[in-house]
Design goal:
Length: 447
């Protein structure tokens, strides 16, 4: 981690919307000093990207031999769940989140000394949110799935809580990792008050939404329901897909400023060659799962001349993949929590409130369930169909594979060989890049 946390402030802040560096005479030596300076640190959009290899390793997309051959080494290895993903190189999925952590820590340490006020409160809230989001993304890829019974004894991730880069930080326990994420989010929800025009700056609703996502991954359904409800009370808007143009090249706006009304926090995954349209195809069973009148099939997908189905429905509004937070996910999180807590009627109410916005007008028939178990199965099925290509499917596979009713075995065939990813496999936890292990001495994940 030391290697990737020591970089010039100039490099870290390149690309800021209103970078204070543009007016400094000696940019190589500059450090942030004002509220605007620290805001510029957090507005470095690309340093906030989320991990993306989990999307390649999941079951939403597949590839022909020719598509596979066009990818970079790490993408091919992730796709086949290989032992060695990096061949001695680093990984953006590890490095970029820790850049976000460094930026957040820099703001907490520096801006905390400035005069108090609402703007400083928001800025500090943003910093806590970004750190929590980065830690959560790292935990979903480089730490095992959360189980309450073993979380204290399992390894999580290094929790870098200061900008000091000369001190090696060991891996925290999985329990401490998640507790730190939640502590940061509670701070974010308390401090953030103002709504920003730019949705890459999180709102209080986004902080509660991320809290609900984390609590769902932990199996804490009572807390997840409360957090989801707090988020929806602040911002519960849903897009009516009847108002979209299903023939459009891209279904949603492509700007953090003009993002659709469901977006609570705008973010993207790290870019890989895989993400460009010719290099992947949508898994056919997923594409076929949308029923008659379901507008998601047209708004999420399109077909090339050769019959290849590709994804065009990213809430990033581009061929980059959205990894932020949106109200549709929050509705589904609360619906699942209600179902798991035995409240069938409320689970169905949330699920149907979402789905009526996804079907052609006059076509949708509200889903019914006689038991909470039936409602839960409906919610889980809709999570896969609604939250396509957001990096959430990998997290869902990890947690659901711990439950007998939802275990899924993934299979791929490549060059005549079948590759299998069984439920509970250690390959659901990515190896830490070997250069990081050799530099810091932290313990590697089993593979």
């Amino acid at each position: 981690m030391k290697k990737y946390l020591i970089w010039p402030i100039l490099a870290m802040l390149s690309g800021c919307q209103d970078s204070f560096l543009d007016v400094k005479p000696d940019k190589a030596l500059v450090v942030p000093r004002t509220l605007a300076d620290y805001q510029a640190v957090l507005d470095n959009f690309d340093s906030m990207n989320s991990p993306g290899l989990n999307l390649i390793a999941g079951d939403e997309f597949t590839a022909s031999f020719q598509q596979f051959q066009s990818w970079e080494y790490v993408e091919r290895q992730a796709y086949l769940w290989a032992d060695d993903l990096y061949s001695g190189a680093g990984s953006a999925d590890w490095d970029v989140p820790y850049k976000a952590v460094f930026a957040a820590n820099l703001v907490m340490e520096g801006a905390g000394k400035l005069s108090p006020g609402p703007e400083l409160s928001n800025l500090m809230g943003y910093a806590y949110f970004y750190r929590a989001n980065a830690f959560y993304g790292l935990a979903q890829q480089f730490a095992p799935p959360y189980e309450a019974a073993s979380a204290r004894s399992q390894l999580g991730i290094p929790l870098k809580l200061t900008t000091e880069v000369t001190k090696t930080v060991p891996r925290a326990s999985l329990l401490d990792t998640y507790q730190q994420i939640l502590a940061d989010l509670r701070q974010a929800a308390e401090l953030i008050t103002a709504e920003s025009v730019w949705k890459n700056r999180p709102s209080r609703a986004a902080a509660y939404a991320l809290m609900a996502r984390v609590q769902l991954a932990m199996g804490d359904y009572e807390s997840a329901e409360k957090s989801a409800s707090a988020s929806l009370a602040l911002s519960g808007k849903l897009v009516d897909f009847n108002d979209l143009d299903p023939a459009a090249k891209l279904s949603f706006p492509n700007s953090p400023k003009d993002a659709n009304q469901e977006v609570l926090y705008y973010n993207r995954m790290n870019f890989y060659l895989f993400f460009f349209t010719p290099y992947y195809q949508v898994d056919y069973s997923l594409y076929a799962s949308y029923g008659s009148g379901d507008l998601r099939k047209q708004c999420y997908f399109d077909t090339l001349a050769d019959g290849t189905v590709f994804y065009k429905g990213s809430y990033a509004g581009s061929f980059g993949f959205f990894s932020g937070l949106a109200t549709d996910e929050v509705y589904l999180t609360r619906a699942e929590s209600y179902a798991r807590l035995g409240n069938t009627s409320l689970a169905l109410s949330d699920l149907n409130a979402l789905l009526v916005k996804r079907f052609k007008n006059g076509v949708f028939k509200p889903l019914v369930a006689a038991t909470a178990e039936q409602a839960l199965r409906l919610v889980i099925a809709e999570r896969k169909k609604e939250l396509v290509a957001r990096g959430l499917r990998w997290a869902d596979l990890r947690r659901l594979n711990m439950q007998e009713a939802f275990k899924t075995t993934l299979r791929r065939r490549h060059e005549g060989k079948e590759y299998v990813l069984a439920p509970g496999s250690p390959r659901y936890t990515f190896p830490i890049p070997s250069n990081e292990v050799s530099t810091s001495g932290i313990q590697q994940n089993p593979r």
